[in-house]
Design goal:
Largest interface: A-B, 69 and 68 residues
CATH architecture of the largest domain in chain B: 2-Layer Sandwich
Number of domains of chain B: 4
Radius of gyration of chain A: 33 Å
Oligomer: heterodimer
CATH superfamily of the largest domain in chain B: Reverse transcriptase/Diguanylate cyclase domain
Helix content of chain B: 25-40%
Distance between the termini of chain B: 85 Å
Strand order of the largest sheet of chain B: 15-20-19-18-17-16
Distance between the termini of chain A: 49 Å
Structural class of chain B: alpha+beta
Shape of chain B: extended
Structural class of chain A: alpha/beta
Largest sheet of chain B: 6 strands, antiparallel
Largest sheet of chain A: 7 strands, mixed
CATH topology of the largest domain in chain B: Alpha-Beta Plaits
Number of helices of chain B: 14
């Protein structure tokens, strides 16, 4: 009915523009079909005077639109990014994945953004568009929404007309009559009464919104609306009721409808959109639609003009408790100097003094002192509770934070680029994340709530987006793909989950990507990726205000009890310049604290991160040998291969180690030059003295983001702000190719400063190279600190470290089986679980000869609850004589007793697994019956003795794996080795002659990194150690089934050795999984399961039990499953 | 006499059945969709040799072997096939029962000598089954449990009284135990039936309940277990022989009425209703004539059925006279007893009778009815269904103004985006008086519809000066004007 190429003659002269006041973005979850960014950009293209984002009972999307508009206003050539499509890698905090970008519209002037929402009341047939006029009205609207949200559970909002009448002063209200074509008389009367009541209550603020319904009878409907407006004294205004920015989103809108209604697309019927007209339309189209009611169009402009509120007005003030009456800046200065005195007992160097002066000056200028004090306060409190914590993030690595004790990385170690995080130009707040022990973070959170009150402190939301996996599953369901197809489609995605579905992978699945339905589905999946799905609570981003928080932003209840969450996520908060403190959790800190406690508890000293001796030679010796299982960040396979080549000898080497084995430096080709220079095969090449300060520490190879910026400043003459823009657009360099201006500027700048063109080119391409993944030095330093501490502990207190590591599971790269094996390789005795000796946690026991041994705890038993374990310990007394005693005294249920028997925890009583299980099976009731089960009376049932066949070693090992995922008895490979002649044990690979070799082992990891173009890395384990197998794509294709499905592989190939790093290049792979049946156990499927983080392989959604085999022989074949990928 | 039982197991029943009809000389599997997941259900030998298994995800299998041929399985056909096999097996003995979905059990006590002894009987069975292209595993023992265990786990014959010896070494799973009991027994080291048999009975029941001992006793013959053959399906028919031949239609009707009364009593007792009735009239010259009546809904009321036969009976050529009438309900459906009240059983019945009556003239399949369908697309906003096999649909949604008559679009010569002032349609010259619209309807993107190839349509309601009110549409993507309906 409206066509863009409509002749202008339809205009009737009144056309002065149009403001769209009713727009549903995709923050009305599963309804709106466009991102706020897209809507704003499209509005600018269409030349609208203003656009209001009005989501259903929510303000969650407005900040996105606001930020997009702000970006549009900036004179720039960069494209607009849809924030929802961004993903931040949690460890490096860099953007990853593909970014959806929007081209900049040429149109000027840009539309204004009106903040608002669509209030859906419980007792009114009318929906209300609420558009606050000013800051005060906004605060009231925000409080109104908070009221409605706090009343009910997460995601809902219960408001009534009386709430509206009470709390919406100063808010412009536009009534939207119900959509139905024909209304019952009573309802029509209701509509009129409600509008009239509101109009009398808020004179001059209430309007009637007439939205076209596009059913062919709009003109009649508008006439009806005009009559209604007349009778209710609410002037009529034209609104578009927009749900998408462009007509092409109609399909996605239909799919969203299906997802909302839980139906398939075939069943959508009339719930589908009949056409794509509910899109954003330009002034001409709207004027033509409302040709008989031109005033309704111009009224939209009037309303837009009255709503002057801009989100930028939200001013933020720091809480003032933290100052104790001092001025914040004075207090910060005082604390800093106190801290410096503590850190440098020998006196402060001039360099440090100058740094402190500069940083304090900058903080004063930007008035961030209160922020540092808030973080300091939280950290102090955590310290007082003996909770380990460490600051991270760029601002954390400042001399201020070092002095305040927020971080332990001193200024000697890394270059401090304070400007990067607190540039005056950007006006963005500084960024400090504090990691706490993951088990005790809740204490810190509750402290913050207590100290500042719930009305002033709230957690940020996290918008949960559709990622590839979820998008495939949901769209697949709607479009009728069967579950196994969707499962394998999402199984095809390795790691990267921002991109859509790859066509070649689809073909690999045996599907035809040219098939219409499948092509449609794949396209829709691509469109849906990045759509917000629901709000969740952020892991720990706290917003703390001086005044009421609910006047800043609506607050809603979190799914977790006792938590309240604001509607905006951390990026929204950043965009508005509101400061937040990140209270994060880190498993390694828990592990380190547990380790400290264990050492202190067994007669050692009380250690802390700061008191660990630095630059310890044995620790670095250990790392050089790649003996790093369990060491933070450097325990992965790639890191372990790199360690012997890198040979770290000092702390900064670890910083580089942490940063260099990342996709960015690897793809940017920085690893080899660095290693060559490091090993002295190449001379460090530093082009100028000016750059020596920048690149000297990394031997002339730019590795960190900070260095890229500094090169731009020092060598190319960028200003700090330009360098920062350069950094931020790095991410989009490669994809968009919009680097023209920066590139010319960079190269010319370098040429002017007498660098060779060749070097300038190389510099720039290197910067480009790690644009997507560059790692900030400050993060690397924080991680390297923990890596060092954990390595030191492993080196000097291996038993305590292994114990703490097991108690902090799940974390890290390795499964308990590998940690235990590693501990035993370090001559630590590991004792089995025993009902009379173990606790829930793994513990250390002192041997008569003084050595510490590791006693496994009940937590290693699969399916045993901590509750049961604590009862066992509590009622233990002088020990249990038999399994029945546990049942009688500790009240352990038969099911839990069976778990214990399966884990062989009764061997202390002389009961093997089978005998214990046999005895426990006789206990039938959950609770002991007092009369019949008193053993003292001797009236128990006397049973004939039964001799069960003894288990052989193979069965015991499998049972161990079933119950605990590890075995102290033997490695399955050890038992199978006699039946497979000609194998080289992994432990002997380091000395085996180069050339052809055959190895066999359980697959513990399978990886196909995105950076390695289809190469698959397998890690095999046998009783002597692990071997690294490289499978080239061709070989992989040939032995696809074995590589994919095998749990025990025999690999024949060529040995390669570099230093102590040994690889086997696979030539021939044989799946030996069937020989696991030789171990002879009926129902195990536990050996060879790897930690999720250890395998790049996609997770199998819901591991389904395979149908029961028909023969025990078939059953045994199902042993030792590993994780598969396609 | 010692009881002897044969257990027959068809490990690949479904795929064997399928491949009998269509030979596939390659890895082949039937798939079953359950819980929205496709799994391999039954495989042929070649597929099993590749390492594929029952219960494996279909997509996994396809990723492993892209050329694996598959077809969805048909459990109904499988069960019919097993029924046929049951009938076939009755050639060996009268007591043939089904065992699960893929097995048979035969009580051959006293019938083996007819085939020359047990060995010959089994050999005959095996030969016939393999000629029929079926993989079968046979077990023969004194008990049903023993035969089951032998068929599935050991294939062989236990001589009379030697059941325990023969099955002792088989795993405990061959006792038809539930999975969890089986697992626990095996974990305790009780792997075989012999191990289980050796244990003191009291200790077993205390730990595992009655199941293991019951199954053990059944297998060893200490507890009886019968084979129950399938019942024959009931037949609903009645016959009337006449001492003298008759020729008048009224006489036939009178005879028919008697038969109907008999038949309907039996139908009522079984809570069934006749859907198709067949009347066979035998003439004195041994020729016979048949009258078939197909009903629009299941019926068992003689008073209502009788008039519907009228037309058929009139066409009968009695020749020298008819001396026997036979009436059979060849197709019956469940028709549970139902509370009747004064509100129900009204116009519905009359409509159904009308449909039946019309159907007997023009064929029941030619009578269709319209049902509402949920779609914006005018052509798809209704569906047609066979009147006899559908109930009147629910409410017709009054969504938009739609014409009373809808016909396939007829193109008219016009251009422009708004309705033409004048146009020719069906050789009439019409001129537009008033046009309302447009209502834009876009094709349903998830379907491929030939008629909507021209893209989206803008519908207009056009009132002509000549009096006709037409429904026109314009296709802006492939400019053209069409008439699709006419308002009342």
């Amino acid at each position: 009915m409206t066509a863009p190429q409509a002749p202008r003659s339809h205009d009737n002269g009144y056309n002065r523009g149009y403001a769209e006041l009713c727009v549903t973005s995709n923050f009305t979850f599963l309804t709106g079909a466009s991102h706020p960014e897209e809507l704003v950009t499209r509005a600018a293209e269409l030349g609208l005077a203003a656009i209001a984002i009005t989501d259903r009972n929510s303000l969650a999307g407005v900040v996105r639109a606001w930020a997009a508009l702000k970006e549009l206003k900036r004179e720039s050539t960069e494209d607009i990014q849809i924030r929802s499509s961004q993903r931040i890698d949690p460890s490096s905090r860099q953007d990853i994945g593909n970014h959806a970008m929007l081209a900049r519209p040429a149109q000027r002037p840009l539309p204004r953004l009106i903040v608002g929402c669509r209030l859906v009341l419980r007792d009114s047939p009318v929906d209300w568009l609420a558009l606050p006029k000013n800051r005060a009205a906004y605060a009231r609207l925000s409080r109104l929404l908070t009221l409605g949200k706090r009343r009910t559970e997460k995601g809902e909002c219960h408001l009534t007309l009386s709430d509206l009448l009470e709390g919406a002063k100063g808010v412009i209200l536009i009534a939207l009559p119900p959509k139905k074509a024909k209304q019952a008389g009573a309802e029509q009367r209701d509509v009129m009464i409600h509008i009239r009541r509101t109009a009398t209550h808020f004179p001059g603020h209430v309007f009637l919104g007439a939205a076209p319904r596009y059913d062919g009878r709009d003109q009649a409907y508008f006439d009806h609306c005009a009559r209604l407006a007349h009778r209710c004294a609410a002037p009529m205004v034209a609104v578009g009721d927009v749900i998408m920015h462009h007509g092409k989103r109609r399909q996605l809108a239909d799919v969203l409808t299906c997802m909302r209604e839980h139906i398939m697309i075939e069943d959508i019927g009339t719930r589908a959109l009949p056409n794509a007209e509910h899109r954003l339309k330009g002034p001409d189209d709207m004027a033509r639609l409302f040709r008989h009611h031109p005033a309704a169009i111009s009224r939209s402009l009037e309303i837009a003009a009255r709503c002057t509120f801009d989100l930028g007005e939200l001013s933020y003030e720091y809480p003032d408790e933290i100052t104790n009456g001092e001025a914040p800046q004075d207090r910060l200065a005082r604390l800093t100097h106190e801290g410096l005195a503590r850190r440098y007992p020998g006196g402060v160097s001039d360099h440090v003094r100058a740094l402190v002066k500069k940083e304090l000056g900058l903080v004063e200028k930007l008035r961030f002192a209160a922020y540092f004090l808030t973080v300091h306060d939280i950290v102090e409190h955590a310290r007082s509770l003996n909770i380990l914590c460490q600051g991270r993030g760029s601002a954390a690595n400042s001399i201020l934070c070092y002095a305040l004790g927020i971080t332990d990385v001193g200024p000697e170690v890394i270059t401090m680029v304070f400007e990067r995080f607190m540039s005056e130009h950007r006006g963005e707040p500084p960024d400090i994340d504090v990691d706490f022990e993951h088990e005790r973070r809740e204490e810190v959170i509750q402290h913050i709530y207590e100290r500042y009150g719930r009305h002033r402190a709230g957690l940020c939301a996290t918008v949960i987006h559709f990622r590839t996996r979820a998008a495939i599953r949901e769209v697949g369901k709607v479009m009728g793909l069967s579950q196994d197809v969707t499962a394998s489609l999402s199984g095809q995605i390795w790691g990267m989950s921002g991109g859509g579905v790859d066509e070649t992978r689809v073909r690999e699945l045996g599907l035809d990507p040219a098939d219409r339905r499948l092509a449609q589905t794949l396209r829709l999946i691509g469109e849906l990726i990045g759509f917000p799905r629901h709000l969740s609570q952020h892991v720990g981003g706290f917003v703390i205000t001086k005044g009421r928080l609910d006047e800043l932003c609506p607050i809603e209840n979190a799914a977790m009890e006792d938590r309240t969450v604001i509607e905006w996520d951390k990026n929204d908060i950043d965009a508005l310049g509101i400061l937040k403190v990140d209270v994060l959790s880190l498993g390694m800190l828990t592990c380190i604290r547990k380790c400290f406690d264990l050492i202190a508890g067994h007669g050692g000293e009380q250690l802390s991160i700061a008191t660990i001796p630095q630059e310890d030679t044995p620790t670095y010796d250990m790392l050089c040998k790649a003996d790093a299982v369990g060491v933070f960040q450097v325990e992965s396979r790639a890191q372990m291969n790199f360690l012997p080549r890198m040979k770290p000898r000092k702390f900064y080497d670890l910083v580089i180690e942490v940063a260099i084995v990342r996709p960015g430096p690897i793809q940017g080709g920085m690893v080899h030059p660095y290693i060559n220079r490091r090993q002295g095969r190449e001379k460090p090449e530093i082009p100028s003295e000016a750059l020596r300060g920048v690149l000297g520490k990394t031997l002339g190879v730019p590795l960190f983001q900070e260095q890229a910026m500094q090169i731009a400043v020092v060598a190319a003459g960028f200003t700090a702000e330009e360098a920062d823009r350069l950094r931020r657009s790095l991410a989009t360099f490669r994809r968009m190719g919009t680097i023209g201006t920066f590139r010319d500027r960079f190269i010319n700048g370098m040429l002017e400063r007498n660098y060779t063109p060749d070097f300038a080119e190389r510099c720039f391409s290197q910067i480009e190279g790690f644009g997507e993944y560059g790692f900030p030095e400050s993060h690397a330093a924080a991680f390297a600190m923990l890596a060092y501490v954990s390595a030191w502990l492993k080196c000097h207190h291996p038993a305590a470290f292994a114990c703490a590591l097991l108690n902090a599971q799940p974390m890290g790269f390795y499964a308990p089986a590998q940690i235990v094996r590693d501990a035993r390789e370090h001559q630590i005795e590991v004792r089995p679980i025993c009902v009379n000796n173990s606790l829930w946690d793994n513990t250390l026991e002192r041997r008569p000869d003084g050595a510490l041994t590791l006693r496994l705890g009940f937590r290693q038993i699969k399916g045993l609850r901590e509750d049961d374990a604590s009862w066992i310990v509590a009622a233990r007394g002088n020990g249990y004589p038999d399994p029945e005693a546990l049942w009688l005294r500790a009240g352990i249920t038969p099911a839990a007793l069976e778990r214990l028997a399966e884990a062989d925890a009764f061997s202390d009583m002389g009961l093997g697994r089978r005998n214990a299980l046999w005895r426990i099976k006789a206990i039938r009731s959950q609770q002991p019956l007092p009369l019949f089960n008193d053993p003292i009376e001797g009236e128990g049932i006397v049973e004939p003795a039964v001799t069960l066949p003894a288990m052989h070693l193979g069965q015991e090992v499998v049972e161990d794996y079933v119950a605990m995922r590890l075995s102290l008895r033997a490695h399955p490979m050890e038992l199978l080795r006699p039946s497979m002649p000609g194998l080289i044990p992994h432990g002997a690979l380091a000395v085996a002659p180069l050339g052809r070799a055959v190895v066999c082992g359980l697959v513990i990891t399978r990886q196909r990194p995105g950076t390695a173009s289809g190469v698959v890395f397998l890690t095999l384990e046998d009783e002597t150690g692990v071997s690294n197998v490289i499978v080239w794509p061709k070989v992989c294709e040939h032995y696809r089934r074995a590589v994919m499905g095998g749990r025990l592989l025999r690999v024949t190939g060529y040995l390669q050795r570099e230093g102590i790093v040994v690889h086997l290049i696979a030539q021939h792979i044989e799946d030996m999984s069937h020989s696991l049946a030789l171990l002879g156990h009926p129902n195990a499927d536990s050996i060879g399961q790897t930690q999720p983080q250890a395998d790049d392989a996609p997770r199998r959604t819901a591991k389904k039990p395979a149908a029961r085999a028909y023969h025990p022989r078939d059953q045994a074949k199902k042993l030792f499953p590993s994780r598969d990928f396609h | 006499m010692q009881k002897r039982v044969v257990s027959l197991w068809f490990p690949r029943l479904a795929s064997d059945r399928f491949l009998r009809a269509r030979t596939v000389d390659a890895p082949f599997a039937l798939t079953l969709r359950e819980n929205n997941t496709e799994r391999l259900y039954c495989l042929n030998m070649k597929a099993e040799e590749l390492g594929l298994r029952r219960g494996m995800g279909f997509s996994d299998a396809r990723a492993l072997f892209p050329d694996l041929q598959t077809c969805p399985t048909d459990p109904r056909a499988d069960s019919l096939f097993l029924r046929a096999l049951t009938r076939w097996a009755a050639r060996y003995c009268p007591w043939v029962g089904q065992e699960g979905v893929d097995g048979l059990v035969l009580n051959i006590t006293g019938s083996a000598h007819l085939f020359g002894g047990e060995a010959a009987l089994l050999a005959d069975m095996r030969a016939r089954l393999s000629r029929a292209g079926l993989t079968a595993r046979l077990g023969l023992a004194d008990t049903r449990g023993g035969a089951w265990a032998l068929a599935r786990f050991g294939e062989g014959v236990a001589l009379p009284g030697k059941t325990l010896e023969k099955i002792a070494r088989l795993p405990v799973a061959s006792l038809r135990l539930t999975g969890s009991v089986c697992d626990t027994l095996q974990r305790l080291g009780i792997d075989s039936i012999a191990d289980l048999h050796a244990l003191p009975r009291a200790t077993l029941t205390r730990r595992f309940g009655r199941e293991p001992l019951l199954r053990l006793d059944q297998a060893l013959g200490d507890q009886p277990e019968d084979v129950s053959p399938l019942p024959d399906p009931p037949r609903y028919s009645a016959r009337l022989s006449l001492p003298d031949p008759i020729g008048l239609a009224s006489d036939i009707t009178a005879g028919l009425q008697r038969l109907l009364e008999q038949l309907c009593v039996r139908l009522t007792n079984a809570e069934q209703g006749a859907r198709t009735l067949q009347l066979t009239l035998r003439r004195v010259d041994q020729a016979s004539q048949q009258v078939e009546l197909r009903l629009a809904r299941p019926l068992r009321d003689p008073a209502r059925i009788l008039p519907l036969f009228q037309k058929g009976v009139e066409t009968v050529d009695a020749g020298f006279g008819i001396d026997q009438l036979r009436l059979e309900a060849t197709l019956v459906e469940d028709q549970p007893l139902r509370q009747i009240s004064h509100t129900s059983s009204g116009p519905d019945d009359k409509l159904d009778d009308l449909i039946t009556r019309l159907g007997s003239r023009i064929g029941l399949d030619n009578i269709i009815r319209f049902l509402p369908s949920d779609s914006h697309i005018p052509e798809r906003s209704y569906i047609t269904a066979s009147a006899a096999y559908s109930a009147p649909g629910g409410a017709w949604p009054a969504l938009h103004h739609r014409p009373l008559r809808l016909f396939p679009p007829e193109q008219i010569a016009a251009s422009g985006r708004t309705p033409p002032r004048g146009f020719r349609w069906r050789r009439m010259a019409l001129s537009t008086a008033r046009a309302t619209g447009p209502e834009r309807i876009a094709p349903e993107w998830w379907l491929e519809d030939e008629a909507w190839r021209t893209g989206l349509r803008d519908y207009w309601m056009v009132e002509t000066r000549q009096g006709r009110r037409l429904w026109l549409f314009h296709t802006p993507q492939n400019p053209g004007w069409y008439v699709q309906g006419e308002f009342a």
